[in-house]
């Protein structure tokens, strides 16, 4: 165990330096049912700075934008409502959201299953408008009724079972959650997912962290990690805007930390969050991602590493990268986050799993 901690410390420091990151936070845990050499491992480390302009050091508890890791929670919201028989995976989106339409007759074929597995054929979001965020309760519905959605063209019929990543599909799933529960999407996430798991440092309403402000200076004072990018001279600088817009809450806007994501991971490693029959469906391969061969489950990506199946999600938006993966066979989870666009967090996450798998 001590040797593994030393290895993780050494690798984390090398990763921060060689990948030229402003900040890097890592969480690695292996439960009591994990392999004997590493059973009970609980490693959390933050390196670098939360804000390159102030040089304030990054701490493990500081808040990151988790980008598309948010989709795991939206998937969970849909599946919880299915467990309560308020929805079915076979429910057609055109019947659940009769006011929403796409200019394509194949839209009527799309079910919740197709949207969760990115096989709906729906297009992707074109512009997140981080520079002009909408913060009102109607923002998500207004996006669903917008010309971007209405005028979009489907790429193929969902019957073809082709994978095409669609943030637009997840925004519509979020609206289904809101309308089915008679709550806002964010209220539902808080009451039925975040609070029951004790994820008290997590929210989908990022602007509330700084009294309604999304100004970088206000968010920094609230203790959040700041978004960074690199300029033409390859220098690390702040992004112009924090990546938040309530129109894209279900696909992209969870803000959290590695400590809270550890709670999310353990709820699934213990298979206590969903019913047994839901878990039997959750991590089945329904489609294959063309560029890397990963499988697609009900909102979760799946990959094979060594002899192990690993399930999770990546997140990337302006200024942030997140990589969250669990391995039930090892009773392990690894989260890696960085506060810069295009940070190599998936590569770091995979390397850490290699270290765990080949530990002697």
UniProtKB/TrEMBL annotation:
Pfam family, one: Beta-lactamase
Domain of life: Bacteria
Beta-lactamase-related domain sequence ranges: 43-344
Gene3D superfamilies, per the entry: DD-peptidase/beta-lactamase superfamily (3.40.710.10)
Transmembrane segments: none
SUPFAM superfamilies per UniProt: beta-lactamase/transpeptidase-like
Matches recorded under InterPro entries: AmpC-like, Beta-lactam-related, Beta-lactam/transpept-like, Beta-lactam_class-A_AS
Protein name as annotated: Beta-lactamase family protein
Originating organism: Hominibacterium faecale
């Amino acid at each position: 165990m001590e040797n593994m901690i030393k290895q993780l410390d050494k690798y984390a420091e090398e990763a921060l330096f060689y990948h030229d990151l402003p900040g890097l936070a890592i969480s690695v845990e292996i439960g009591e049912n994990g392999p004997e050499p590493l059973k009970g491992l609980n490693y959390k480390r933050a390196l670098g700075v939360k804000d390159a302009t102030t040089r304030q050091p990054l701490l493990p508890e500081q808040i990151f934008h988790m980008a598309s890791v948010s989709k795991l929670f939206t998937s969970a919201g849909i599946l919880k409502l299915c467990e309560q028989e308020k929805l079915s995976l076979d429910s057609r989106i055109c019947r659940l959201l009769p006011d929403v339409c796409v200019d394509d007759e194949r839209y009527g074929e799309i079910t919740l299953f197709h949207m969760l597995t990115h096989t709906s054929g729906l297009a992707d979001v074109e512009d997140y408008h981080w520079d002009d965020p909408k913060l009102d309760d109607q923002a998500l519905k207004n996006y669903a009724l917008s010309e971007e959605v209405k005028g979009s063209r489907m790429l193929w019929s969902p019957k073809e079972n082709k994978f095409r990543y669609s943030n637009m599909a997840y925004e519509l799933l979020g609206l289904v959650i809101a309308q089915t529960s008679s709550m806002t999407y964010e209220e539902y996430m808080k009451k039925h997912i975040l609070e029951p798991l004790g994820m008290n440092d997590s929210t989908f309403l990022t602007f509330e962290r700084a009294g309604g402000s999304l100004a970088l200076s206000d968010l920094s004072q609230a203790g959040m990690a700041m978004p960074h990018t690199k300029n033409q001279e390859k220098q690390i600088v702040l992004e112009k805007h924090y990546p938040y817009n309530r129109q894209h809450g279900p696909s992209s806007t969870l803000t959290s930390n590695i400590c809270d994501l550890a709670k999310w991971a353990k709820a699934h490693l213990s298979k206590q969050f969903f019913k047994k029959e839901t878990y039997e469906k959750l991590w089945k391969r329904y489609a294959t991602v063309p560029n890397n061969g990963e499988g697609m489950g009900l909102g979760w990506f799946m990959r094979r590493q060594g002899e192990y199946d690993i399930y999770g999600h990546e997140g990337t938006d302006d200024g942030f990268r997140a990589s969250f993966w669990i391995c039930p066979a090892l009773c392990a989870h690894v989260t890696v986050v960085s506060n810069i666009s295009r940070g190599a967090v998936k590569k770091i996450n995979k390397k850490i799993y290699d270290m765990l798998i080949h530990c002697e």
